[in-house]
Amino acid sequence: MKFKNYYEVMGLSRDASPDDVKRAYRRLARKYHPDVSKEPDAEERFKELGEAYEVLKDSEKRAAYDQLGANWKAGQEFKPPPDWRFDFGAAQQPGGFSDFFEELFGGLGMRHGSSPQPSRGFDSFASIDLTLDEAFRGSSRTLSLERIEQDGNGQSHRRVRQLAVRIPAGITDGQQIRLAGQGEAALAGGRRGDLYLRARILPHRWFRPDGRDVWLELPITPWEAALGETVRVPTLSGKVDMKIPKNSQSGGQLRLKGRGLPGKPPGDQHVILKIVTPPAETPEDESLYRKLASTMKLNPREAMEE
Questions:
Q1: Would you identify the CATH topology of the domain 6-105?
Q2: How far apart are CA 230 and CA 240, in angstroms?
Q3: Which tens digit of pLDDT belongs to each residue from 186-212?
Q4: Which residues on adjacent β-strands are paired with residue 142?
Q5: Of 94, 63, 115, 81, which Cα lies nearest the Cα of 3?
Q6: Of 128, 235, 120, 223, which is closest to residue 173 (Cα–Cα)?
Q7: Are 17 and 119 in contact (CB under 8 A)?
Q8: CB atoms within 10 A of CB 197
Q9: Whole-prediction pTM
Q10: What residue spans define the domains of the chain?
Q11: CA-to-CA distance for 229 and 296, rounded, in angstroms?
């Protein structure tokens, strides 16, 4: 039987804290989950990760595992000490983990009269692409999820499930939707884990989301900037009137309060002004520009010439 170094599997040192163990599992579970991973050995790595997490998250199992010492190498031939006894009273059903795990924790030294207790299944992680309009208004989706499930004989099978998902209005990029009981099945009939869907907001033609705020670059004419003007501005909920102050400059920022993604409080819409210069396409256009240049004396580089 080959020794398994559970710390190496999770990329941890032997003095890792319980929080370190949880963080490492969540990160690696996202990377190697067979439903979303493109890694060629994702299924095997995910099962190996689950086994390592089962030991290192449990203080009793981890303490017993650490008694074996730190000198064993992964893949090295291993046999438990003759006096090995581990009494944890709530063993997993055999068949769910490797021979190495079963040899150490598969029921040796169980308390008299105890029976295997169901445990909670692992959480699953996936991403869902949303338009900014869906994030603003909320929506409903039906997802097809392909997952690995084990039958009573411990054999793995792929199964496709249809799952209805409600997208809440105001969801932000990176926010997670928790679907209770839709994760991995548990051994010995325990409760399923949860499924976490990470929202990924797709690029928009005009708006750029930043949390609940949204940003918009608004083209304006030189005379609108110089004289001040009320213009129609698109927002996620429709067009509104906005006053451009007199003598505005390109790059200036205005704010439409509460016009971002809904929430408590709702986000704002930030508007960046971009002055668009009309092209001089005709002799008349050139004449107007020359007249403007001679009438309105302006040297925007004056400070650079000092």
A1: Helix Hairpins (1.10.287)
A2: 10
A3: 655 567 788 888 899 999 999 999 999
A4: 164
A5: 81
A6: 128
A7: no
A8: 24
A9: 0.60
A10: 6-105, 124-201, 207-295
A11: 20
Is residue 220 within 8 A of residue 243, CB to CB? The reply is no
Contacts 24+ apart (CB under 8 A), 258-261: 259/214, 259/235, 260/209, 260/212, 260/213, 260/214, 260/236, 261/135, 261/136, 261/169, 261/170, 261/171, 261/172, 261/209, 261/211, 261/212, 261/213, 261/214, 261/236
Give 142-191 pLDDT, tens digit per residue.
Answer: 988 776 665 666 566 677 878 889 999 999 998 999 888 887 776 555 67
What is the total residue count of the chain? 306
**Domain 207-295, CATH 2.40.160.40 — does that match?**
no
Sequence-separated contacts (24+) of 33-37 with Cβ below 8 Å: 33/124, 33/125, 33/126, 34/147, 34/148, 35/124, 35/126, 35/145, 35/146, 35/147, 35/148, 36/125, 36/126, 36/127
Look at residues 300, 277, 302 and name the one whose alpha carbon lies nearest to residue 288. Answer: 277
Selecting from 2.60.260.20, 3.30.230.10, 2.40.160.20, 3.90.550.10, what CATH number does the domain 124-201 have? Answer: 2.60.260.20
